[in-house]
Design a protein that fits this description.
Elements: H1 10-17, H2 32-52, H3 55-64, H4 74-85, E1 88-92, H5 98-106, E2 109-113, H6 130-137, H7 144-166, H8 170-193, E3 196-199, E4 202-205, H9 208-211, H10 214-222, E5 227-230, H11 233-236, E6 249-253, H12 256-271, H13 287-294
Parallel strand pairs: 1-2, 3-6, 5-6
Antiparallel strand pairs: 3-4
The structure holds fe (ii) ion (FE2).
């Protein structure tokens, strides 16, 4: 039985085929192998979290009371999470177009995959899975300053959609949307997904892509091959990235208040036209992402 294994879950395939983006977590479908994959992923990363993660993340893990031996129930997580910051994990069937994703953040919902990677592929998976979303992202949502920053990302997306929809020329509208979404995706990537934070004399990890990777969390802090720079907005929004290998370049913020202020600044730049022609390159912005901004109901 395939249970709820990433890319092999009939329940998810059916939801996608039926166009259901937001779903429930059919907990009874998890197989023994799914629970075993969670247990192994969760237990082996503990010492690396203790060593490399920001204390704010560790506090979040403690507050969520995750069971190390079973795939977590989303409703249990939300019972602990929602009273702290108003955030909830919201189960989804897979990819969520960009505007809808950020609009969820604005409403303090975090789109969360419910499948878990195959036990034979614990180290690398191109798709997000529940270990990435729940163990990597959700503990950060217990921190008020970080949670408010995610909401600020959502507000930025709303401002961007308003600005794009005002444009009269349909060709300009699409080109503008692509550039602004690329800027936003890069900034999100280099912060929420792969960010580092100054912590006293050390540098710690707060980015969820790093927090959910047994290998890369250590590499991001210790490897001499990684360039780590104080974040600069103009650099982050014009810097391409690739998802299929460890990141060679990471940016450091001072605090979540600092990150919040950078999202504010991003919105000032949006309105000043400074996101209209960002450097070409990854990530590609899909037609669905563009369409989601053009058709956002405001
Ligand atoms: Fe993520």
């Amino acid at each position: 039985m395939s249970g709820l294994t990433t890319t092999k879950a009939p329940f998810i395939e059916k939801a996608q085929k039926d166009g259901q983006r937001f779903i429930h977590q059919p907990y009874e479908l998890y197989s023994l192998e799914n629970h075993a994959a969670w247990t192994e992923l969760y237990s082996r990363i503990q010492p690396r979290w203790a060593r490399y993660a920001t204390p704010k993340f560790l506090a979040g893990v403690a507050q969520l009371n995750l069971d190390p031996h079973k795939v977590p129930r989303i409703e249990d997580i939300n019972k602990f999470l929602s009273p702290l910051t108003g955030f909830s994990a919201k189960p989804v069937s897979g990819y969520i177009p960009a505007y809808i994703f950020f609009d969820c953040l604005r409403n303090r919902d975090f789109p969360t995959t419910i499948t878990i990677r195959d036990k034979s592929k614990l180290d690398y998976l191109p798709e997000p899975d529940m270990f990435h979303d729940v163990a990597g992202h959700v503990p950060m949502h217990t921190d008020k300053a970080f949670a408010d920053t995610l909401v600020r990302f959502g507000e930025f997306a709303l401002s961007a959609a308003l600005l794009i929809q005002e444009l009269k020329d349909p060709v300009v509208r699409v080109e503008r949307a692509k550039s602004i979404i690329k800027a936003l995706a890069r900034f999100f990537w280099f912060t929420v997904e792969f960010g580092l934070m100054r912590s006293g004399n050390d540098i710690k990890v707060y980015g969820s892509g790093l927090l959910s990777s047994y290998g890369e969390i250590e590499h991001s802090i210790n490897s001499p091959e990684v360039q780590r720079y104080p974040i600069q907005l103009e650099w982050a929004i014009n810097q391409y990235f690739e998802i299929d290998h460890y990141q060679p370049l990471l940016f450091v913020v001072d605090s979540f208040e600092h990150l919040f202020s950078l999202v504010d600044e991003l919105e000032v730049w949006l309105k000043a036209g400074k996101l209209n022609n960002v450097a070409p390159g990854q990530p590609e912005v899909s037609d669905l992402d563009v369409e989601s901004f053009l058709s956002a109901k405001l």
